[in-house]
Design goal:
single chain, alpha/beta, ten-stranded mixed β-sheet, two-stranded antiparallel sheet, 40% helix, WH-like_DNA-bd_sf, activator, transcription
């Protein structure tokens, strides 16, 4: 049934398509770039279609190449995971998770102890670099947690939260805000389409005329810096109901006009289709879903389905 499949060429293609480089594929497979190029030509001749566009200094997948890569990558990943389950079990396993520094610090890390209590042999490695991960090309990352307005039809995903923004401050600052214009604390968003003109939207909805009174405004590059400033009593912060939840629970921050909220986007957990069956990834998905439900912030429906694309980086 499979005797005619050019397995060596398919393996070379998967590596080159994932890395978008014949040279990088050659290094990964310990062969020469010429050998990779030859195997790709063999596969293209066998199929009768071009899989790559050869451009100056780079290559790009054709439509046919994209289709083959999506199916081939998932199939090889499933084979690799099946083979791994047959090996003698090691004392532990690992999971690499990419998310933002703010989400890791303010929501994920405070709860990770509950995951480790249930799965002591799974080590979670956090990658909080700012670069957006292209999951189909970076096999070192198992899943990403991202905040985005987009859908991801080529990735397996779990919708965790629908976010809203409110105003919060220390108990003292919230009491003072009823008598005088407060200092406003905000975040300098790197991706403005995720949440633009936040204070204007909140003031319009609440009826507050603070912006007309030319208040002092303090901006920070990251949400956790803005929340720390609010906790320290430096003013009121416009913040995500998700990222502020731990500070609210501990009493460090309290809401100001808590019924006034403006809509944000949503958080999702995403991985390459097929990887969700890998035991550590499956365990982490299940735990995330439970934590989202426990928090009371989960959306009413929580589809586990094929989503996709590249996740949008928060802030």
């Amino acid at each position: 049934m499979f005797a005619s499949l050019p397995l060596t060429a398919l393996r070379a293609f998967e590596s080159a398509a994932r890395l978008l480089s014949f040279k990088a594929a050659a290094e990964e497979l310990s062969v020469t770039p010429t050998a990779i190029s030859h195997q790709i030509r063999v596969l293209e001749d066998w199929l009768g279609v071009a899989l790559f566009e050869r451009l100056p200094r780079k290559v790009r997948l054709t439509e046919g190449g994209e289709r083959l890569f999506r199916s081939l990558h998932g199939a090889l990943l499933e084979v690799a995971q099946s083979v791994d389950t047959l090996r003698p079990q090691r004392s532990g396993s690992s999971l690499t998770l990419s998310t933002t520094a703010a989400f890791a610090a303010l929501w994920l890390v405070p709860r990770l102890g509950r995951f480790y209590a249930r799965h002591p042999n799974i080590n979670v490695r956090l990658d909080t670099h700012c670069e957006v991960i292209a999951l189909h090309q970076d096999a070192s990352v198992d899943l990403v947690l991202r905040y985005s307005l987009d859908d991801y039809p080529n990735l397996y995903g779990l919708c965790l939260f629908d976010e809203s923004f409110g105003v919060y401050g220390s108990p003292e600052q919230v009491a003072l805000a009823g008598r005088r214009t407060p200092t406003l604390i905000s975040v300098r968003w790197h991706n403005s389409k995720l949440y633009a003109h936040g204070w204007e939207a909140w003031c319009a909805k609440s009826g507050a005329n603070w912006l007309n009174q030319h208040p002092a405004i303090r901006e920070y590059d990251e949400e956790h810096y803005a929340l720390q400033a609010a906790i320290a009593g430096q003013g009121l912060v416009l913040a995500s109901n998700i990222l502020v939840s731990e500070s609210i629970a501990s009493g460090l921050l309290v809401p100001f006009q808590g019924d006034v909220q403006v809509d944000g986007a949503g958080y999702s957990a995403l991985c390459v289709p097929g990887r969700e069956r890998h035991p550590p990834v499956r365990a982490f998905f299940a735990w995330l879903q439970e934590e989202a439900l426990l928090s009371g912030l989960a959306p009413r429906s929580q589809p586990l389905a094929a989503h996709t694309g590249q996740a949008v980086q928060i802030s």
